Backbone:
């Protein structure tokens, strides 16, 4: 969809304690070598800090940087990743109460690692649709610190899962970047890739099961669709979504100054995304993300914040942002830099 009069006014972030890959528990020399070859040097670990508390920290940072104070926030969209609050509780309600926000509309978007682009898509509707909101708070956070999950081993060697949070304030009046377009889709043909053979029934008293996405993925490859067909299928789908956003923004791939993706092995991104689009590899903004790790739905806004803070953006830069999530979801947005934000360190 083509987007008019929607801006990102500010970004807020929070990252806990950094752990170097070489200090990771339980990985062997081969796996360490694979991480090193991919440039994945470390990740962030939150320990006992809940994801929603990290979301609150990031939201406060975003609001402090914004022209809008907390009283001016009139809608909230949260992108949930993994565990947020106990079953039956509501993560956005917790976040808004902690912030001292008004009794505003809130939405919980369960799109996993597509979290903030999914939240932004809902936020665009709030800003431009019948609701006509003025300032929408977007949040996402994750904490993968649990015995039921191994951030170092359960996802192969193309990514290391990270704890952390990101937030943004989107508005209809002005900000440091303008949203030109945003499109998304759901390739339900491969939905089982992230579900495997897991039961669809609620727990029946059995012990909690280790959440191993690698095992689910392997089941799909062994029983449903072979690896080569799987990757060909979802890469083509992702490229279609990306090209739709480029077209809606009236921007060609050659006019893209920066590319921001989720934090995975960049060799895969180069082969699957940059080369087919004809975008030079040096336009991929990935060095910061290699240190951060894959922080669920926060990746692309953590990188955008880093670029804005360190002066790596220039007015007029066109930015392609894309992220994916289980389902198989893909979103892509094109943004144009209006100016460096007041919180830039440049």
Residues:
């Amino acid at each position: 969809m083509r987007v008019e009069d929607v801006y990102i006014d500010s970004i807020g972030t929070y990252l806990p304690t950094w752990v170097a890959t070489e200090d990771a528990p339980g990985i062997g020399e081969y796996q360490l070598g694979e991480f090193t070859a991919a440039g994945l040097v470390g990740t962030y670990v939150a320990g006992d800090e809940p994801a929603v508390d990290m979301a609150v920290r990031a939201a406060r940072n975003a609001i402090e940087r914004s022209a809008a104070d907390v009283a001016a926030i009139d809608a909230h969209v949260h992108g949930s990743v993994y565990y947020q609050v106990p079953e039956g509780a509501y993560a956005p309600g917790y976040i808004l109460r902690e912030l001292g926000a008004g009794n505003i509309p809130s939405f919980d978007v369960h799109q996993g690692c597509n979290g903030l682009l999914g939240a932004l898509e809902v936020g665009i509707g709030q800003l431009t649709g019948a609701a006509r909101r003025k300032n929408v708070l977007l949040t996402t956070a994750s904490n993968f610190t649990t015995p039921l999950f191994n951030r170092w081993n359960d996802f192969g060697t193309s990514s290391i899962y990270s704890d952390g949070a990101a937030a943004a304030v989107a508005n209809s009046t002005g900000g440091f970047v303008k949203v030109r377009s945003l499109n998304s889709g759901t390739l339900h043909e491969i939905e089982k890739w992230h579900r495997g053979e897991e039961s669809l029934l609620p727990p029946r008293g059995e012990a909690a099961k280790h959440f191993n996405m690698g095992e689910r993925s392997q089941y799909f490859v062994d029983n449903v669709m072979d690896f080569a067909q799987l990757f060909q299928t979802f890469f083509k789908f992702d490229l279609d979504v990306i090209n739709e956003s480029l077209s809606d923004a009236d921007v060609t791939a050659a006019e893209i100054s920066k590319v921001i993706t989720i934090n995975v092995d960049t060799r895969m991104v180069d082969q699957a995304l940059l080369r087919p689009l004809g975008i030079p590899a040096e336009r991929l903004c990935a060095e910061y993300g290699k240190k951060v790790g894959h922080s669920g739905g926060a990746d692309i806004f953590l990188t955008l914040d880093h670029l804005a803070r360190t002066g790596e953006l220039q007015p007029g830069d066109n930015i392609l942002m894309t992220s994916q999530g289980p389902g198989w979801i893909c979103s892509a947005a094109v943004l144009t830099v209006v100016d460096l934000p007041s919180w830039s360190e440049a």
The first strand starts at residue 7 and ends at 14. The domain at 180-337 is CATH 3.40.47.10 (Peroxisomal Thiolase; Chain A, domain 1). The mean pLDDT is 93.
